[in-house]
Amino acid sequence: MVYEPYSVLITVYKKDNPEYFRQSLSSMLTQSVMPDEVVVVTDGPITKYLQSVIDELDTKYPQVINEVKLKENVGLGTALKIGVKKCKNELIARMDSDDISLPDRCKLQLEAFAQNPHLDIVGYSIKEFSGSPDNIVGERRVPETNEAIYKFAKLRDPFNHPTVMFRKSKVLSSGNYGDYRKNQDSDLWIKMLRNNSVCMNLPDDQFRFRFDKATYARRKNWLNTGSLIEIRYRAWKSGYNTLGEFLIIGIGQLARHVLPNLFQKMLYKFLKGSK
Prior knowledge:
The chain has helices spanning 18-29, 48-60, 76-86, 105-115, 146-152, 168-173, 184-194, 213-219, 222-237, 243-258, 261-272; strands spanning 6-12, 37-43, 65-70, 91-94, 100-101, 121-124, 126-129, 136-140, 165-167, 199-202, 207-210. By secondary structure, the chain is an alpha/beta fold.
């Protein structure tokens, strides 16, 4: 089978862990169907250790890595918006700087796009790990069919952001990423679904999401809570969400922000297991 060429889009900034970044980037450079371009957006100045990872892998895989250096830290949403425009291929695989893609992740997504030329987004459910990738501590399941995704998206994100492969043209025609430092993916999914994107999540086990105690702390802050409420408020005002749906989301986010971490952990475990 002849596979369509694709780009990988990943960002990195100075506080990222170099070894996690190495594992993440390496997992995309050793896919069973290898990308012909990996766009690495450095979101502001990075450490010499992070830069050494890029330089080492650039030497090992010549003419694949396209490093886009931003002079200042602009935040993930803006960095991704710039990165999408820099990708040369129509199909773009997203990746985060601390997660791990299994070898057939992109191959299976490319096959899905080949089988259905109308597809715009293809993602996966994820298994969460702590420490070693084989130490599975949880999972986040997402709906698989287009109809189920549209229904699910009214209250929750229907994709696991670092797992998706999407069409560049559809992302751009939907408005691209917004300038959000948090929840930029939630904003993008709403815009793409409003733009009648055709979607699916594959049932295969092809992704490992790094999860530790700090994950809860990163989510339990006002920047994260406030940005999601703002995004869903705009969705309600635009007619995407009903008032009731917006209130459910807003009250839930406020409760997660003010209640103890134990409640947040219980809520997260309940929500990630439901479709």
